[in-house]
Amino acid sequence: MLVVENVSMSFGERDILKNVNMTIGEKTITVITGKSGTGKTTLLGIMSGLLKPDSGRVLFRGKNIFRWLDFMRSRYRNKKIGFIFQFFNLLPDMTAYQNIIYPAIINPFSKNIRGEADFLVNYLGISHIKNNYPTTLSGGELQRVAVARSIINRPEVVLADEPTGNLDDATADQIISLFSEIKEKYGISFVIVTHEKKFLSVADVHYHLTDGQFVRMDNARGGAVKKEEKEKAVPVVRKKSPGKKAPVRNAVKKTEKKAVPAKKKSPVKAKPVPAKKGKAKK
Amino acid sequence: MGNDILFSEAVSPVHVQQDAAAGQMHFWGNGLYQYCEKDMKLMLHILMNISFALRDSARNILKSLISSFGIIVLISFLVMYIPFRDSVKNYIETSLFGKLAINEIKIYPRSAQQNNIFTPSSSIRGQIPFAHVRAIKGIKEIDKTYSIIKLDFKTKVHGEMLGQSRAPFLPICGVSREFFKGKLRNWNGFRTGKTVPVVAPKMILELMNNYFILNGLPRMSENDLRGFPLDLRVFIPAPDGEERMHEIKAHLFGFSDVFAFPAVLVPRDVVTSFAARHRYAAGRLKQGYQHIMLYANIKDVRKLPEVAQKLRKMGLVFESQHDVAEKTNRALSVIDDFSFVVIGILLIITVISIFNSYLNIVYTRSHKFSLKRIIGVSKVRIIMGFVVEAAFIGAMYGMIGYYAGKWMLDYAAKKLPVWVPALSNIAIHSEREGLFLMALVFSMLISAVSALIPAVFASNMNLFKAVRK
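YS: structure for the whole thing
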């Protein structure tokens, strides 16, 4: 659905992203981890079309979003992408309800905006605060409002930048399970940039960003990291599927195939990674 | 995607009814919603967009209103300047330089040519030789000629008004009746009866009115003075060296802006017959009158250069409509230069002020703009939001400026004769076709263009670029 292909980006002389490849499949939760300053947020900016990479491309349903005009990219952000931030980024001069409906208002093809907004407000349990301004809301409430805003236009992917970074553990757990629920129930994919290990429990795919390059972690649900692949995504795919189809497309299928058996394994039964074996023994 | 339920369950009006029951109004379209039919939803969507845009504008409006205040001053000045300029132009054309038709030229001797643009070019100096007059009449490109002949004696025009008697020296000139055809009302009545009809230049009426105002007397209109009795006094030199005064009874027939030199016009036969009777009075005159000016109609305006060439060969100069317009424009350039400097300064101050204010809005609300971009607001929409808001404020202030300027102009028109009596003849009319529209468009344009660059800055706000920095 959303493919990041050979994306490189540098800030001045500092290379942030080097030939990064990534594929976001439908109805998946992709978690991206990495140290601060490794380019995780930049990658989200590139995926949304707000930052143009120095090289490489981002394909949405096979079309390069950087070939589109600005208004088309804006529509793509509005209709196909949802955003959730660590600091919520709600518009301070609008009520929670107005914040939720705002993306739908600017979408000329939105239907039944208020009906959808009312449903989301009830579904997320924020109907009692919908007429409050963001300054009067708690972190958990703000993040729920942000979640409602991100999905009101029925996006296909939600990009979340440290969504639990500003929340307490209990609220963070609620948000994590909410993401999983939304994904399962409504088929929305999530790309979550986080330091929070808890997200791995719901992640279908886990990438670790280090030295500007992706290392794909094959994690099983339950948080245990089973295997570490040092190879980059695309070279691996190219080796394995040199056929007619595009390597990126194959990579999606590969990811999905790997993800399915992983789901079946319970967190308890998951094999610990070699690095953690030592720790487990201790 | 399997999310149909999520977005179809919500269609139920239950939530809306709950909202309405709780009396919660989120925005003004709320109450309408439950009654909306399917085809009304698009309208509602548009209204909601407008409502949100207005909310945004409402938060900036105070800053914008203060910064755009210069538009009122600018438009007021323009609204005052344009009609005032027109009035002055009209005054100069009619009172100082005289009007000419497009195919009409005014021929006079080179000695009458003036360098000073504010004095009538055709002051009575020198004469056109009789031979030249005949030659001009013979030019094939020229259709008709009307010669203005001056009685070649010392003359005065005497009149009594409001208990005061005045007899200034004024040349008495003659012209045929047809000269006034289409230029003067009742031109056919310009013929000698019991008394001689006299046509004076409009300039004289204005001089008289200036004199009245300075002495605290009311202004006189053309109609008030029509038929006013005058005496034309001609002083004939006698052989003994003294002068004998001949008095001709006359009446004021009217005022004309066709000629603009200090003299009075009487029917041509009055001058020629008087001159014929007294041409040898001093023993030195041959004709008793002189040709001082010729008005000629050209058959084809395109032949004007050829006529000009022939006239130059005779040592004569001429003036066409184009020349009058040029001279008028040269005279007006003084006013224009001053006004353009003032307009320029006001414009720069206004533009900088609006620009600065919007730039300030952009930087203080940069986070909001970048957030909007993330949510999916396009650059064009952000720019349009700014520009439309600025244009709206511009239009509002343009209207205020227009009415302020108009009021000030009307006030000035009333008070100008009191403040500066010499300018009392400048008839200022604040009503001018298209001025309101022009003021409105101009003010909108200034405001919108000033806000354009800040709007572009706002549209380029990017949260991710900020992080990158």
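YS: worth flagging: The first strand of chain A starts at residue 2 and ends at 11.
IM: good catch. Also The CA atoms of residues 1 and 36 of chain A lie 27 Å apart.
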